[in-house]
Amino acid sequence: MNRRKFLNIVGCCGCSYIINSCASVPITDRKQLNLIPEAKLNAQAAQIYEKVKKKEKLITDGRNLKEIKEIGKKMEYAISEYFYLNNIKDPTVNFQWEYILIDNKKVTNAWCMPGGKIAVYTGMLELTKNTNALAAVMGHEIAHAVAKHSVERASRSALIQTGTQLFDIFSGGKLSQVNRATGMDTVGLLQQIGIMNPFTRKQETEADYLGLIFSSLSGYDIRETTKFWERMKEKNKGKEPPAFMNTHPSSQKRIENLDGWMNEIILDYPPIKT
Length: 274
Prior knowledge:
This protein is of the alpha+beta class. It has helices spanning 3-20, 38-55, 63-85, 122-128, 131-146, 149-170, 174-182, 186-194, 196-217, 224-235, 251-268, and strands spanning 22-24, 31-33, 58-59, 98-102, 110-113, 117-121.
């Protein structure tokens, strides 16, 4: 078999596999790559979550943890009910929701792992300042899990890795030669600035949009979201990296997007009745 015929076969098989592995993000309907089994990532996330719980100092009672869990429960119900009422497959049906509060005021962060494993740091509470802003943050993080962004990122990373390996084979090892000569990992470089960052910013913007919807469906005042990002903008003043190097949209860009979506979401996604 000659080289051209081999490339055609590999290309056709790859395209067919990729097409069959496409899915759509709920609500936004954006097409996404889904090569990695969700159950596999959920299981891995659950294991890592347990390690985090053992490693970090957790706050196991008190008003703040209670508030986080209450927001979470409201969102769990609102999200599932919305998909049920609209005859859409519920992407959270296999989630095992769990919430922890990590005692670390130096970290202004929150995250949601695949499968609904959520963590909030006490440093974030100093910036959210109220329930509606905290709901905005949690809605954003939950949106990442609902939209299967981790599955998408893992799939895209696997595809890039495979593609660069094939290119190296077909180019007679020239990619490996460049890596050795420059000391750079080309795949890592592509992931950092050439390909993965714009892709990740797209996910972040999508999570902002979906998070706003989930907060509204759960009965929270989503107008507090822009106020939160104003505070974040002030906190990060002069510290945000250039757009092409940043995996997240700038605070100012987020504020503009949120303001643009606000009225539409308030009208189209009113609170779900309990």
